[in-house]
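Entry for the shared binder. Reason: the reviewer on the internal report wants the predicted structure included alongside the sequence.
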Amino acid sequence: MTSALGNAKSVTIFAPASVGNVGVGFDVLGHAIAGVGDTVTVNRCEAPGVRVTGISGVVTDLPDDERNTAAAAIKAMAQALQLDSGFEIEIEKGISLGSGMGGSAASAAAAVFAVNMMLKIPLPTAELFPYALAGETAASGDAHGDNVGPALLGGLTISGPAANPRVVQVKMPNTLRCVLVHPNMKIETSASRNELPDHFERQKAVAQMANLAAFLAGCFHRDLDLIEASLQDLLIEHVRSPHIPGFNKVKAAALDHGALGCSISGSGPSVFAWFKSESSSRQAAEAMVAAFKDEGLEATSYISPINSPGARPV
């Protein structure tokens, strides 16, 4: 497949942070977070290949070669579409690494979105998913699209398996809010994934499948009671939570303030909770931050609609 490039020589794209797994959907569900993300500028050049020429922001010690998620994503896209150009990338990181906020996915999503805007006939955004997923894989070693999907499309997304990568957006009630609280510590995604068990008890796996099915039914039917009853993780949370000081207190603070559910964002250490309204989410955010502070951890909170936008031009 060959795609023709248009006249644009430089494009700058912002892609948001995201909540991975959304508790009940390990490696499958994710949703965007407003107000924080990565900004990527892609410049066309005559020299072949893909290079990272600048890294700034909250993180600067990233690879500048094809191990970089943005570079790996563009390389995959350029090869698949047979793009006759070189590309140089400048990355402004707004998402800390090891935060559980989808930083590697955001850079990859922004990069391919930028190249897409350089095409004479841009692809539908969902068709960029396999290329951004290639970038995410360069960072974590596994092709999981739970952060890539929302970074591209925004809102809540369901990601298909690596063997048949695809992504679908689920429209949610505009009133729903997420509180994401990030404590000042790191958990590396690759190390966290290595700690997960290879096998799960059948009974727990079936119960988790039931929760996921009920949760998605609740989302599609906008049934908040069903969402609340099923937004719980039976497989992963108990493995990862001991590595997050004060997790149980933070979760209790969220639930005490009316959360529909609360769990770990991605590999952690960030913790997310869903709420029915803006007012309840603000009160909960203060309580969740205070719970981390009781454990000696400073934390930052973000309050975001579930229906937050994905990648977009700056």
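Summary line for the report: The chain has a mean pLDDT of 94.
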